[in-house]
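All the exercises in this workshop are built on plain-text protein records. Sequence and backbone structure share a record, each on its own labelled line. The question running through the whole workshop is how a given chain folds. The record below serves as our worked example for the rest of this section.
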Amino acid sequence: MQILEGKSIRLRALEPTDLKLLYKWENDSTIWEVSHTLKPFSIFILKQYLESSHLDIFETKQLRLVIELIETNTPIGLIDIFDFDPFHQRAGIGILINDTENKNKGFASEALQILCNYAFSILQVHQLYCNITASNEVSLRLFTKQGFEIIGNKKDWIRSKNGWMDEYSLQKINPANP
């Protein structure tokens, strides 16, 4: 089995053919609050991003992978490593399963487990972290089930249309390199 492949899904590199999909997902304003996006992305900008996605994570400090169903080769989401810091051996993680029909089927959990294994064994990171609003119970459950621990609460950290929200900081230490 490949390191970026699980039972139901694989994580694969971005392809030029993903441009329309990225455009659709990045410009979905219903997820902007979670992704801290304030404006839409143009096709031009996303095309430039795709053209540079082949660069090494040690150079760009980020890696975006497509979550794809193995059985049908259908892309269902994205998973990111960002703020990669090779000196301190840490990185942030973000994940998106886009369509409702693919949620609550274990795909996000499988993708997160695969990415954690990759980051710990291949990139040799010491710790991974994420930031999740206190009201996002689904994401909190996803990350804590994968061994992430809540290490802090930032009060009134995120401004939303419904007022201020707290944001939790979570981290997972590499079990093979404590």
